[in-house]
Specification:
The chain is an alpha/beta fold. The chain is built from eleven helices and 17 strands. Helix 4 links the parallel strand 1 and strand 2. Helix 2 runs antiparallel to helix 3, helix 4 packs across helix 5 and helix 10 runs parallel beside helix 11. The N and C termini lie far apart (about 65 Å).
Amino acid sequence: MNTIRPAPVLVDDLIPIILESNDHWWPRDFQRLALVSPAWVYPVRKRLYAHPSLRTYRACHLLARTFAENPELVSYVQRLELRPTADEERALDEREMRSLRCILELKGLRSLTLGGDLAVAAHRFLSVMHDTRAVTELHIDGCLPIQRRAGLLAPVIPSLEWDDAIAFRFPNLRRLTLRNILLTIVPSTIDRPAGLTHLTLDNVGVDVGFLPDICQGSWETLRELRVIRGNAVDIEDGVRSMLEMCENIETLYCEGHELLYHMSVFDDEEPLACPKLRKLCLSGFDVNSETLQAIAQACPELEELAMLGRLVRVSSDQWTSFLSSGRLKCLRRLFSPSGTNVPPFTFWSSGEREQLLKVCGAQGVAIADLTSKASSPVDW
C-alpha cells in the first residue's frame, strides 16, 4: 500500500530569518521571492525598499511613480543613495526634476548619499529636503568632475557649501563623509547642533574656510577623523587644527597621496597633545624614529598604531628600541611595514623580524598581519 506524504510546508516565521541570512540578495531575487506566496510579500518589500540605490534619472522617475501609487512603501525606506547623471547632450526636463524632488522629500530617512550630478553644489539638493531630523549619516561623493553639458563650456566641479542653514537642517547627524569634492566652509556666529562623532574627508579640497568649523558645535563629541588623499597643505594644517580643537578624538586615520617625503602632522616644532587618542594610522608619510618619539609624547594612551607605506624610515632596531622603552604603555597592536626605506626600501631579514616579534611579545604588543583584511586599519 502506497502512502502519500504531504508536501513539506515552509513555516512563515522562517521567512525573515532566511532573508537576513544573506546580505547579497539582488533585486531580481526579491522579485522572485515575492511571487512564492503572499506571506513573502511584506518581508521582501521591507528589504527591497530599505536602501534604494539610483544611478539614472529614469530610475528616480520610476521610484517616485512607485511611491505615488503605493504610499505605504515609503515607510520602508531607511537609507537612500542617489547618483544620477544626465546625458552630455541635454539638460534635465521638468518631469525628472519633479521626480527627484519627490524622492528628496521622503520622511524618516536615516542615511543619505548624494553623487553624480547631485554632488555639484550639493547644498542645493540638501536644502530641498523636508524631514531631515532622522538623518544620522550623510555622504557626498563627487567622484570625477562632471563632463560638459548643454550650454556649459567647461566641466563642473563637485562641491559643497557648509553653512548654518545646512548644519541646522541635520541636528542629529552623527557621521559625515565627503569624497572628491571642493568644500566651502562658512563660519558660524552661533553654536551649531552637537553630536557629530565621525568625520571622513576623502580627496577633499578646502576652497574657503577653516576645517574645524565644519564640526563647530561638535568639537567635544567628535571621536573619529579620517583624512585621505588630501594635498600636503590641507593634511598638515587641517588635521593639526582638528586635533587641537577636538580634544576627544579617539581614532585618527591619515593617508597621504603621493606626498613624497612629506612629514606627518606630528613632525612639527610645536608638539601636539592628543590625550584621548586610542588608534592612529599614518600612511604615505615620511616617518622616522623622531616621529615615534613625538607620537609617544602626544598620545600616551595609544592602543593601536599603524605606520604604513614605503616611506617609513624606521629600522627594525629602532622599532625594537622604541618598543622596549615602554613609552607607549597602553599599546596593544602594531601595524608596520616589513622593511625600511633606507632608501631604497629594503625588506627586513628573518632574524630582524624574529627579534621584533620577541620584543613585542615581551611588551604585550601584537603585530598585525597586513595581508589579512579582517585586521586592516582601514576597517577601524
